[in-house]
Amino acid sequence: MPIGSMYEMPGHLIRRAHQISGAIFTARLTGFDITSVQYAAMVAIASQPGIDATRLSDLIAFDRATLGGVLDRLEAKGLIARQPSRQDRRVKTITLTVDGSALLETVKDRVLAAQAEMMHSLSKAEQDQFIALLKKFVGRVPEED
């Protein structure tokens, strides 16, 4: 199989796109000690204060077992707080701390710049089409509540 044929394989291209997007995100947020998954979790928590880990894992499409480690690191950094639910003490609700909210606000423009950098080679129409196709590919996109 010629090497060029790899660039016709969606799996290879998706992997490369993931590498590129991750590198751009990391470069734009250097010094803030936050990963793209931690950022996604914090955005979801900010939009739904008091969310539990099961719902959060559904919202950001991240497996529950791995998400536990993400939440542990965010809590250790003082960016989130977990408390037992009032309805079910076995469930912990998650909220952003003041520091977590401040960090989201601080990095907002950098995250937007990273997204723009990822899409810079596409026209506006191509960007819209690309996003629409990615949404179709992943199968579902959580609704805003």
From TrEMBL:
Q: Which residues form the HTH marR-type domain?
A: 6-139
Alphabetically list the UniProt keywords.
DNA-binding, Transcription, Transcription regulation
Q: Which InterPro entries match?
A: HTH_MarR-typ, Tscrpt_reg_MarR-type_CS, WH-like_DNA-bd_sf, WH_DNA-bd_sf
Highest taxon of the lineage: Bacteria
**Does the keyword field hold Transcription regulation?**
yes
A molecular function annotated in GO for this UniProt entry is: DNA binding
Membrane-spanning regions, if any? Answer: none
Q: Which PANTHER family match?
A: TRANSCRIPTIONAL REGULATOR, MARR, TRANSCRIPTIONAL REPRESSOR OF EMRAB OPERON
What is the protein name for this chain? Answer: MarR family transcriptional regulator
> What species is this protein from?
Roseomonas mucosa
Lineage, broadest ranks: Bacteria, Pseudomonadati, Pseudomonadota, Alphaproteobacteria, Acetobacterales
